[in-house]
Amino acid sequence: MPQKTILIVDDETPIRDMLRVALEMADYHCLEAADAQSAHSLIVDRKPDLILLDWMLPGTSGIELARRLKREEVTSQIPVIMLTAKGEEDNKVQGLEVGADDYITKPFSPRELVARLKAVLRRTDNFSDNGPITVEGLTLDPASHRITINDQPVQMGPTEYRLLEFFLTHQERVYTRSQLLDHVWGGNVYVEERTVDVHIRRLRKALQLDGHDRFVQTVRGAGYRFSLKIAASEA
Amino acid sequence: MPQKTILIVDDETPIRDMLRVALEMADYHCLEAADAQSAHSLIVDRKPDLILLDWMLPGTSGIELARRLKREEVTSQIPVIMLTAKGEEDNKVQGLEVGADDYITKPFSPRELVARLKAVLRRTDNFSDNGPITVEGLTLDPASHRITINDQPVQMGPTEYRLLEFFLTHQERVYTRSQLLDHVWGGNVYVEERTVDVHIRRLRKALQLDGHDRFVQTVRGAGYRFSLKIAASEA
DNA sequence: CTGGCTTGTAACAAAATTGTAACCTGAAGG
DNA sequence: CCTTCAGGTTACAATTTTGTTACAAGCCAG
Fold first, then answer.
1. What is the mean pLDDT of chain B?
2. At what angle do helices B91-98 and B62-71 cross, to 10 degrees?
3. Strand D nucleotides in reach of protein CB atoms, 7 A cut-off
4. A133-234 belongs to which CATH class?
């Protein structure tokens, strides 16, 4: 699962810091903005998965920003969690009406923050629900997370699964090890490129069942490719 | 698909208004009632597809009404979503036990409301008349809340029951711990994800009787799945 | 109020996965 | 024929993930 990006919008630095710490601990990637202006450009630019928006902002208020976001096509799908101070409770209803997905009252525990955030993400998340992919008797079904070769179940690790999923959705094209690390492992990890070789090997082993491992092809000096056509080397 | 009819039961007019606006926007037809009395006659009379029921009502409380509905033959099949104010969270379990299908804490976002409502409708639609579900000798009877394996009664806690019910109505699909918390525990709870593991374990233990625990399968790195087919790992 | 049952968590055990290094193989190019 | 080097294989320890057990707190019937 690729890492989620959260945008923190708050004008108080210590609060931002606290939020960032809590979020990074829970393995989220953070962006920060101190005002509505820069927040907006960050949103358009980086497309965060969720926005943590303080109610009080200098200049344009948080609620104003929220309203604006919900009006724009590109940004209206991004869930928003409002931060409000104690005593501003009336604003909650207003905030939610504007389209915020949840709200949190300061002060709050990091745990609560992360819990709510997860709840919102899991609700708005998913629905990239593609149907099963089948090629030459090899089937990958994202819904059940199952691989079969001619209806025989195939067992492999999570990384191999993601690798195969990527290959199946990007056939007939060569990817360098570096690109594979980006797409399958997720951008900001540091692992040796040769690690890819090992997982390619593991994937091939898993697909051996009916010779289906021949689809995972090596392109010397370039990288790997998933292709139904036979490789030049065995022609 | 014919338009669904939702009955809103709440004594506060502004809340009813807000709900109606949200629901009509999502293309539902609305009925309204301010007290349990008129709610009940509307239900019998108009047969709504779903009831949004406020916890707090003058006279008969919401929960009382819910209990009453679930006892009566005609009305027991209609799904109920409970509305509770923040802080009344403890009541949630009670609400679910009475037979509510979900519950939402005020204040909530219109989007959340509609999302949950859709989820509940979808759930009760597909597996229509709450008849007993049987697979491979394993039977779950919603009416009597009983589980049997080859006619042998099986004992488990309420959470395990709901978990199994969810699995039986959503076979062949992986659910993350997070999603299970959402669907089985109800969205707004905040419990550790590992808690799911423990309940999975309890469910498996209960189903051991005739090896039926093998249907509850672990999908490493993803979550759990209920499937009659064997898992790849034991092939 | 008591005793039994359920529930969420923590803690520990077991198992599977992951990244690396080391070594092996075969092809390309001289 | 030899060298070089990209890629193939294997082994393994660290890390992650899941299984299992124990336990304190909450709830409810009696």
1. 80
2. 20
3. 6-11, 17-22, 27-28
4. mainly alpha
